[in-house]
Design a protein that fits this description.
Elements lengths: L3 E4 L6 H16 L7 E4 L10 H17 L5 E2 L18 H12 L6 E8 L10 E7 L6 E7 L6 E3 L8 E3 L5 E3 L5 E3 L4 E4 L1
Parallel strand pairs: 1-2, 2-3
Antiparallel strand pairs: 4-5, 5-6, 6-11, 7-10, 8-9, 8-11
Helix pairs in contact: 2-3
Length: 193
């Protein structure tokens, strides 16, 4: 096997991070630390009761998992949502979001410069703006993933730096970016140069 796979179903947050850390320690103990770690069979469990929030949750969770530099790939709770389901039906919204992040956003083979969380006074609700620098794996394009972690609230945000040409959502939509502030929700978007 060229990778190590762990199931983290129902292990959101601290429990999921603990499982990843313990798996990495075991891989090192047995001389397997050169192999990539894939987190499979994960879900948000009780943390996202609504379908729309599942898409936002998977975007945040997958980004944070990958940005730690410990997990190379994450799949939702079943293996077949990345392609057309075996019975010929269309992908679920979560399957679409995973495909968008892995292929269009360049998460597969990409690298993160880490994530930061900041509080801004112009936001509704209580929360933080998360930003994660990304070098896309498919093109080498510089990107920045951003979201506001306060469910049901919004925040005005202008990406730092210059040269941003568009931003993409988890549904595969691309919007031309001409500068200025955009409205962030709890669903991540990807700014690209």
């Amino acid at each position: 096997m060229t990778e190590i796979r762990i199931g983290i179903a129902g292990c959101a947050g601290r429990m999921g991070r603990t499982l990843v850390a313990e798996t990495l320690a075991t891989m090192q103990e047995f001389g397997q630390s050169a192999k990539p770690l894939w987190a499979t069979e994960g879900s948000c469990g009780k943390y996202c009761p609504e379908v729309g929030d599942e898409v936002a949750w998977i975007g945040r969770y997958y980004t944070l998992l990958l940005s730690q530099g410990e997990v190379a790939r994450f799949d939702w709770y079943c293996y077949d949502i990345y392609g057309i389901l075996w019975n010929g039906e269309e992908l679920t919204p979560i399957g679409v979001a995973l495909g968008v992040m892995q292929d269009d956003w360049g998460y597969v083979g990409g690298s993160f410069a880490g994530c930061t969380a900041t509080q801004e006074p112009n936001c509704t609700g209580q929360g933080q703006i998360y930003t994660c620098g990304l070098t896309e794996g498919n093109t080498g394009t510089t990107g920045q993933v951003a979201w506001y972690d306060s469910q049901g609230n919004t925040c005005s945000y202008t990406p730092s730096g210059s040269g941003w040409v568009d931003y993409k959502d988890l549904y595969g939509n691309t919007v031309q970016y001409n500068g200025g502030a955009v409205t962030l929700t709890n669903s991540p978007i990807l700014f690209e140069k």
